[in-house]
Each structure stands twice: as structure tokens, then as C-alpha cells.
Design goal:
Elements (H helix, E strand, L loop, with lengths): L1 H10 L4 H12 L5 H5 L5 H26 L5 H10 L1 H31 L10 H18 L3 H34 L10 H4 L8 H11 L16 H31 L9 H12 L5 H32 L18 H14 L2 H4 L3 H33 L12 H22 L12 H36 L1
Helix pairs in contact: 2-8, 2-11, 2-13, 4-10, 4-11, 4-16, 4-17, 5-6, 5-13, 5-16, 6-7, 6-13, 6-14, 6-16, 6-18, 7-13, 7-14, 8-11, 8-13, 10-17, 11-12, 12-13, 16-17, 16-18
Length: 475
Amino acid sequence: MTSSKSSTKKVAGLSVFAVSMITITSVDSIRNLPGSATLGSQAIFFFLIAAILFFIPVGLVCAELTTMFPEQGGVYLWGKKAFGENFGFIALWYQFAENLVFYPTLLIFILATLFYPFSQHASNDPKLMFIAINIVFWGVTLLNFFGLKISAIFTEVMGLLGTILPMILICGVGLFWFLTKGDLNQISLNLHTLLPVFSSNTLSITFTSVVLSLTGMEIATVYANEVKNPQKSYPKALLIAAIFIMITLTLGSLAISTVIGPQSSTLNLGVMQFFTEFFRVIHMPFMTVVIAFCIVLGGLASLNNWIIAPLKGLSSSAKDGFFSERFKRENKHQAPVFMLVVQGIVVSALSSIFIFIPSVNEGMWLLNILMTQLYMIMYITIFISFIVVRYKFPTLTRPFKVPGGNIVAWIVSFFGLLASSGTILISFKPDPSVGIAEPYLFIVALFIGLFIFSVPALFAMVYRQKRLNQENLTQ
């Protein structure tokens, strides 16, 4: 009992700054900039539309649900309150499945950035990337054995050095380049270039990449019972994070487009291409190594956030009988060690995709689309849960409430559902610029991926039902 209490004290009391950092480093990923940079000046239009239809609705809904139910559980708790344990588990499972697909793509970006100053060809070596992915992932996994306090400190320090400062630097470089290197600018900003060509074959695909870059606002909700005064702190942290994220993602995308051009940006190396060109022009090439190191730190902070957060939610579902007793086990630091190990094994197996797919860029795109589809299913459950609990718990205290009554709540949910479901549908169309050799095989692979990642959820629900039936028979 003593150790349990002491460990609870250790992880409790995250500040507004800590939660803001967790949210920013989870969403505001430099990794997403090369993809949105391919939009050129049209990035402003797409980020604005995505913010209205998706980002703002997610932020508003998560803020109300989190302060309404400040106990730990996140998307699982919200679905459980709306429709019961099974619905909550479906929401949680797709969040967890999305993370399993996300880890290899983030690690590819981290490693490509790390290798770039020394060998630009290393990031295209599948076997090397497979080995490096597993070394880094298991290293960060072991760090999380020591609980949330160490994890949060790691995020604050690494996030500041590796996400906040590089993001500000990217935006500053872009502004400097635009104002002083007019003859070298790869894009122009005028009414004609700001508006997209709606007949373009890549129009729907570009919207998908922008929506993906704005996902993750719900991640800090799993820390609700470890935040100081969550009813006030979480909405404040969310607002700070949201403003910073929208500004830096939009300006960062424009900056990369301005310096290296929309057509030259690649998913794994676009950021380093940007800094290499800038430091070459100002005759400071040695700074490429320094900035690469900082970006790697930011990537590790983002990876660290996502490794532990979904497992805290799965731990809550394990207590409701979806998994065996082993999945509930936590060490003295309240870290779900068994779940961390199982997650690591799955990620190790999934990362082998880069051995079988010849192009790293093609493999990243396939995983990005599968990740988007799994993630959008989870967001659909969030918006549905939000509307249901509005009517199911009308008198429950809501320290933060989406203004405008139920009419605005329906509008917000409609926008979110429209963006989420629409993103799933249009994401099945391969992007021609990625160079997918067999588009039909690409679509088949996505369906197979969705099926494989859905099956475990069905088994878990069947397992829980059998346990409940056995318990009823013994009573």
C-alpha cells in the first residue's frame, strides 16, 4: 500500500505547461511538414478548412469531455459513458492500433534525419532501417518502465529542444528567405496560387495529409487525473497548444515550399533538404548536423508520448475484463510493463514491412494512409459519444462546455463526422506523386490492414463476454 501511494504522488500534478508540451509534441510534428509542403501556397487554404471541419471540433469536444469526466480513461471512458464498455473499447482499440502503425513511420523520419548529415543513402537501406527502428523503439520503451513523471520530464526537455525551437526556426527561416531571397523563392503568394485547383487529381489526397497532421489533440486526456486542477488546466493547455500548432504547421509548410519547392519535398527527408539548402546559402553547412540532432530529440519526445498514453487507456479497459490479469499488471512506477513489452513485439513485427517494400517513401505512404483510416474511425466514435453524453447526462457539471447549446454541439459534431468519414473514403485513392507501382494492390493492402487490426478487438470483446457469462454461472 505504501509503495502505491508514493508512486501516485510521484506522477500526480502535471502543470499547464507540461500538458501543453505533451499536446504540442504529440500533434505539432515536424515529421508532417514535408507532406503538407507539397501543397505550396495552397497549404493556407487547406489548413484553414481542416481547422474548421476537424481540428477545432476535436479540440472543443475533447475539452468538454475531459473536464466533464476528469478521471483517467480518455476515449475509452467517453465511449463507455455513451454506449457501454464495448463501444468504449472499440474507440480505444482503434487509437491503439493507429499507434502501432504510426511508430515505424515516425521512427523512419527520426532515423532519416539522424543519418542525413552523414549518409543520405542510409535512410534508403531497408535492413539498416529495420535494425535501427527496433533499437530506438525498445530504448524509449524501457524509459517508460520508470513511469509518467520521468516520461513527462523527458517530453518537456526533448520537446522544447527538438520541436518548439526547430519549429520556430523553420518559420523564421521561411520568413527570412521569402523577404530576402525573392529570386530564389519556389512559391508565390497571391489569390491565384492560394486557391486550389478543384479539378486536380491530388486534391482529396492533399486534404488527407493535412487532416493527418492535425490529429492527436485527445492524447493528453489520458493524463486527466494527473493534472493539477484538470477542469481549468486542460482547456487552458489545449488553447495554448492549438494556437501554437496551427501557426507553426501552416508557416512551417510554407517555409519548406518556399526554400526547396513543393515538388522537391519527400516524406522522410523534406525537412533536412530544407535546412541543408538554407545553411548552404548562408555558408554555415555545419549547422545541418546541429539541427538534425535537435529534430531527432523532438521526434523522440513525440514517440515517448505515444508509447505510454494509449496503454494507460488499455489498462482501464483491462480492469473491465477485456484482457487477462497479466495486462493489468503495473510496476512500482505504475507503468504497464506487460503491455509495453507486447506493444514492442508487435511494432518490431510491423516494422519488417520496410524489408519487403523496395521504396521507403512508398512504405511510409502506405502506413500513413492505414494510420489515418484507423485514426478516423476513433474520431468518429468520439463525436458520436459527445452527442450522446450531452443528452444522457444533461445535468452533469461541465466546467468547460462547447458554447451555443445543443444546436452548436450538433454542428460541431457534424463537421467532425463529415471530415473524419470523408477522409477515410478519399484516402483509398493513391497519391500519383508517391509513385505507387500497383494502385489496386495498394487498395487491397489497405483493406487487409484494416481487417487485421480490427480482428483483435472482436476477440477481446468475445473474451470479455465469456468471462462475464462464467461469472454469472458461478454466482
